[in-house]
Task: inverse folding
């Protein structure tokens, strides 16, 4: 038993160190490798939990899946939220929840496949409890959201809480919330429900005390040695940012639609102006005109009266009258209204 406990402690320290080390490399490598790591840890956690691997000490039972790998995931999400903000945290949460859903589905498919082909090996992939998996996924999602909210609430200036106490209470609160949600969802109504709750509460307290030094050391290291300031955000920052992103997307979509409408109206206006321009007839260039009768020669070499030519090459229309000078010349004895016109 003692050797098993030592192995569990060494295993936990190793996994915690790997998670924090991977996060510390984000300045050079980004967070892609970190997301891949927590995705792998999620898959391992599910498989180890299904296998029921545990270490028993007097009065306490430590499940390897939750003791080592789930707390490592909490550490990872914790430091991502503190130093990288809600958006990066949502990606981490989506990775954990997505793989937490995918692994049991793959297990169920493999169990069905092997059961059809070779029933003797079906025990390698035993069917999973839908209730337990549902409780696990719901609890994990609620835990990770609560982690961000608790961290911001305990960081309010009016509480004036030291960093070490803020870190420990946030971690312990998440651990105990997980016990309540998971144990209630998975085992409520069963004979061993209360004993499971009691034992798990104690084990999570012990785990929190063991994990806390790693978390506090890392936050202090990033905050002081590397000059990483801890940002104070609203308590619901992780949820508000989701709303803000959706609002931004909605506004962007509205702006795109508005611009498309303006572009369509612009194209319609250009089309109508082009059509109007095509209907306009213009006289350009030099017009060959007879010096005596003032007839104009067209492109085919035919001669036309001035009025006829202009009417056929423009939108102008002519009406005829007689000016005073011509009236005196051509009709000296007649009284002609010089301003009168006839079409």
Result:
């Amino acid at each position: 038993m003692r050797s098993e406990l030592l192995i569990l402690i060494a295993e936990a320290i190793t996994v915690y160190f790997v998670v924090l080390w991977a996060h510390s490399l984000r300045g050079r490598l980004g967070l892609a490798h970190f997301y891949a790591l927590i995705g792998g840890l999620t898959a391992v956690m599910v498989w180890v939990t299904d296998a029921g691997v545990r270490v028993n000490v007097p009065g306490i039972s430590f499940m390897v899946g939750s003791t080592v790998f789930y707390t490592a995931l909490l550490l990872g999400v914790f430091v991502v939220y503190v130093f990288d903000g809600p958006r990066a945290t949502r990606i981490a949460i989506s990775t954990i929840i997505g793989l937490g859903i995918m692994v049991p589905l793959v297990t169920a498919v493999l169990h069905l496949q092997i059961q059809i082909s070779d029933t003797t090996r079906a025990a390698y992939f035993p069917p999973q409890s839908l209730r337990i998996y549902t409780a696990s996924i719901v609890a994990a999602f609620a835990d990770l959201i609560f982690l961000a909210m608790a961290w911001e609430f305990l960081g309010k200036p009016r509480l004036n809480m030291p960093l070490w106490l803020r870190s420990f209470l946030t971690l312990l609160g998440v651990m105990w919330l997980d016990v309540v949600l998971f144990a209630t969802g998975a085992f409520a109504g069963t004979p061993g429900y209360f004993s499971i709750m009691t034992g798990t509460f104690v084990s999570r307290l012990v785990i929190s005390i063991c994990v806390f030094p790693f978390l506090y050391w890392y936050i202090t290291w990033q905050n002081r040695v590397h000059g990483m300031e801890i940002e104070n955000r609203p308590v619901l920052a992780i949820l508000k940012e989701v709303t803000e992103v959706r609002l931004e997307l909605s506004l962007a979509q509205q702006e795109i639609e508005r611009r498309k409408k303006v572009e369509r109206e612009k194209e319609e206006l250009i089309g109508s102006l082009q059509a109007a321009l095509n209907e306009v007839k213009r006289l350009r260039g030099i017009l060959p005109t007879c010096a005596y009768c003032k007839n104009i020669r067209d492109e085919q070499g035919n001669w036309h009266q001035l009025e006829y030519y202009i009417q056929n090459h423009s939108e102008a229309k002519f009406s005829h009258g007689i000016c005073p000078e011509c009236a005196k010349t051509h009709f000296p004895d007649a009284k002609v209204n010089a301003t009168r016109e006839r079409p």
Q: What stands out?
A: Residues 239-280 form one domain. The chain has three domains: 2-235, 239-280, 296-342. The longest strand covers residues 54-57. The longest helix spans residues 64-117.
